[in-house]
Amino acid sequence: MSRAARLAGAFALLLGPVTGSAQTPALAGDVGSIDGMLRAFYDVISGPAGQARQWGRDSSLYIPGVRFVAMSVRGGQPVAEVMDHAEFIRSVNGPFVQQGFFERELHRVVRRFGNIAHVFSTYEFRTTPDGPMLGRGVNSIELFWDGRRWWIAGAIWDAERPDNPIPPEFLPSSVPR
User: Fold this and answer.
1) What is the arrangement of strands in the sheet containing 150-159, beginning at the earlier edge strand?
2) How much of the chain is in helix, strand and coil states, percent to nearest 5?
């Protein structure tokens, strides 16, 4: 048996339990397409002040053990804050519910090969749906198709800063650069 075939078999064994489990049953409209996944990815965390977020629905999008990486810069050096799903919720739930938070996708670049996909999703956020835009950035999302549904295997993001402008290929022509 070739090394590639052995690796594929090992991954199938490892992923078998993943494809049948999620913390909350997934909604078919969320996980049936990349479009549905990205719509849900933004929808579950957005809402007005005082409104609970849809963390159960959010958890259904990800593989168990998913990692989130929030990039920032401190003292001129890049810093990666690595979190699991529970740590992510603990870090954002309070501010999102207290102040309101609306994140929306501005543009998407998808690269797909077979059953894997990489999405660069440019976003902006506000505290109210029509309030001033408070920031933008790019989410880098890794997904895979298990034959029945899509799963997010990981997400990493970085914010736009004066020294880190969003590149033109990640912005639609209608959005100010």
Assistant:
1) 77-83, 62-74, 150-159, 135-145, 116-126, 102-113
2) 30, 40, 30
What does pTM read for this prediction?
0.85
The class level of CATH for 3-170 reads alpha beta
- Torsions phi, psi of 134, nearest 5? -100, -15
Domain boundaries, the chain: 3-170
Find out whether 84 and 59 touch, Cβ atoms under 8 Å: no
Q: Among 96, 97, 104, 79, which Cα is nearest to 156's?
A: 79
Burial of residue 61 (number of CB atoms within 10 Å: 0-12, 13-18, 19+):
buried
Give percent above pLDDT 90 in the chain: 84
By C-alpha distance, which of 137, 134, 50, 58 is closest to 99? 50
Instruction: Name the residue among 114, 112, 105 with its Cα closest to residue 172.
Output: 105
CA distance 174 to 116: 29
Run of H or E including 56: helix 55-59
pLDDT tens digits, 49-84:
999 999 999 999 999 999 999 999 999 999 999 999
